[in-house]
């Protein structure tokens, strides 16, 4: 199995759960915050994955990779921070108790 196929279910779940929050209040603000968070996480992944691969902490078998890379880091590694940036706020939105209604 290749790494792109491994990340595909994570990306699919992230998209479905994030879209499920569309009718909830403040969707645009949540997406903007998630996008900014994703940029930061991707930047950190870019720096530290490249460092860890460069010092030989780990390696990837080439036959399991898509062949696309940013520096030494395979592009597949960037799916996980992207999923985290969008999936976690979406799950919080779906499972958080609704705000109390004004009775006044």
Question: What does this molecule look like?
Answer:
The protein is mainly α and 104 residues long. The protein has one domain (22-95). Helix content is 61%, strand content 4%. It is built from three helices and two strands. The chain has helices at 3-20, 27-54, 79-95; strands at 69-70, 73-74. The chain has a two-stranded antiparallel sheet with strand order 1-2. A hairpin with a 2-residue loop joins strand 1 (69-70) and strand 2 (73-74). The longest helix is centred in the middle third of the chain and has 28 residues, at 27-54. The protein is elongated and about 65 Å long. The model has no long low-confidence stretch (mean pLDDT 91).
Summarize the structure.
The protein is mainly α and 104 residues long. It is 61% helix and 4% strand. α1 runs parallel beside α3 (79-95) and α2 (27-54) runs antiparallel to α3 (79-95).
Shape, per Cα inertia axes: elongated
Structural class by SSE content: mainly alpha
Helical residue percent band: 55-70%
State the total count of DSSP E strands: 2
What is the average of the pLDDT values?
A: 91
Spatially, the strands of the biggest sheet line up as 1-2
Radius of gyration: 17 Å
């Amino acid at each position: 199995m290749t790494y792109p196929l491994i990340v595909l279910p994570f990306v699919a779940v992230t998209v479905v759960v994030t879209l499920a929050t569309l009718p909830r209040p403040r969707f645009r603000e949540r997406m903007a915050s998630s996008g900014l968070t994703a940029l930061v996480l991707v930047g950190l992944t870019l720096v530290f994955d490249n460092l860890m691969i460069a010092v030989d902490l780990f390696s990837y078998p080439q036959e399991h990779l898509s062949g696309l890379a940013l520096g030494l880091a395979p592009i597949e590694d960037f799916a996980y921070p992207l999923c985290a940036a969008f999936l976690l706020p979406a799950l919080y939105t779906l499972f958080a108790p609704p705000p109390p209604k004004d009775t006044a």
